[in-house]
Specification:
alpha/beta; binds manganese (II) ion; TIM Barrel; binds phosphoenolpyruvate; 2 domains
Length: 359
């Protein structure tokens, strides 16, 4: 059974207003210099963005990369707030980060994907936030574990944090896919179903990893009915010290936002259309997953074909195929699927792999 969360609706946080969707958080991956922060923030302010992000402690895969400017970046963020009137937020990954943010009266923090995966860190962040009123956006953990994600929300809530939102930024995969992190939209959709009050954002920047994918991912987030987007924007993306390939100039960001088609249901008829659109978007995601799985299967099947050829073994081995069919039929019936249908699908897959191996 779903746990209960005590949440304050997004519109009561003081800086997001729904509708219209999306609520946008934008800013550079990293604060690099006072000038870069101010120039980017000015550009964003001009296009109507009022919630500014910038990472100052950067979780990098390899040591020796740019690891953020540290706490002095908070002074620059404060300048963004005082000169431009924008709300400011940054990533916290431990209690020391929270303490620094509290000193600078930061408006919102987010917990990064690597941190959400670590209950010890989430617990210490939650305890450090006790008694404050700071909103927290929680990214999904790097692994596709919905319960771990929910656990982080519960830890925050247990310490009295009630302005909580989530950000779906995709998950790590072993296989190479076109995106930097694989979307698991079903996790975001499931969270929305379990906690209707929970604001759900998407982070197309870290999901896509490349500018060219930002539009399609942002549009998908809107089609699925998500509330907001966190997007990385830099005054000069090609010179960015981190995530250069996925950042947009403020001008490109507004072009992207203006080209999104976003419909909000107001009448019964529109509600029907909206539900239909969201369900169709889910089907599209599942179809993409099916295609990816079929392509991965075909790749392994080709490797088997090469191995058989190299060892002069016949391509078709009826016993093996009978075993496969038996296994999938048992598995299919445990999911309540029609076994004749599953047999037809798998026989078609088998035929295609044999054809591939005979090439
Ligand atoms: C970020 O938002 O800068 C970041 C590091 O993201 P993630 O935790 O999604 O990798
Ligand atoms: Mn980044």
């Amino acid at each position: 059974m779903a746990s209960k969360l005590e949440l304050v609706p997004l519109n009561e946080w003081g800086f997001f207003h729904l509708p219209p969707r999306p609520c946008v958080v934008a800013g550079p991956c990293s604060a690099e210099s006072e000038e870069q922060v101010m120039q980017t923030a000015r550009g964003l302010k001009e296009i109507g963005i009022n919630v500014f992000r910038a990472g100052i402690w950067k979780p990098r895969t390899h040591p020796g990369c740019f690891e953020g400017v540290g706490a002095r970046g908070l002074d620059w963020l404060e300048r963004v707030r005082s000169e431009l009137g924008m709300h400011i937020c940054t990533e916290v990954a431990n209690e020391k980060h929270v303490a620094e943010c509290l000193k600078h009266d930061i408006d919102m923090v987010w917990i990064g994907a690597r941190t959400t995966a670590n209950p010890f860190l989430v617990q210490e962040i939650a305890e450090a936030l006790r008694g404050t009123d700071i909103p927290v956006l929680v990214k999904n953990p790097v692994n596709p574990d919905l319960d771990l994600w929910i656990g982080a929300l519960e830890r925050l809530n247990a310490q009295g944090v009630r302005k909580i939102g989530v950000i779906h930024r995709g998950v790590s995969t072993v296989n190479k896919i076109k995106y930097r992190n694989a979307p698991q939209w079903e996790m975001a959709v499931e969270l929305r179903a379990r906690y209707p009050e929970l604001p759900v954002f998407a982070d197309p920047s870290h999901m896509g990893g490349k500018r060219e994918y930002l539009f399609e991912l942002s549009q998908r987030a809107m089609d699925l009915g998500l509330d907001g987007l966190m997007l990385e924007s830099h005054c000069d993306p090609s010179c960015a010290l981190s995530d250069a390939a996925q950042q947009l100039t403020p001008a490109d960001l507004i072009a992207l936002l203006e080209s999104l088609t976003v419909r909000d249901a107001t009448t019964e008829d529109e509600r029907f259309n909206d539900n239909l659109r969201q369900l169709r978007a889910q089907i599209d995601v599942l179809d993409e997953n099916l295609i990816f799985t079929l392509a991965s299967r075909m790749k392994v099947s080709r490797q088997i074909g090469d191995l058989k050829k190299a060892n002069s073994v016949a391509i078709v081995q009826p016993n093996r195929w009978d075993e496969v069919l038996e296994r999938v039929v048992v598995s299919a019936s445990s999911y309540g699927l029609d076994t004749d249908f599953v047999k037809r699908v798998f026989n078609a897959i088998h035929e295609a792999s044999v054809a591939e191996q005979n090439k």
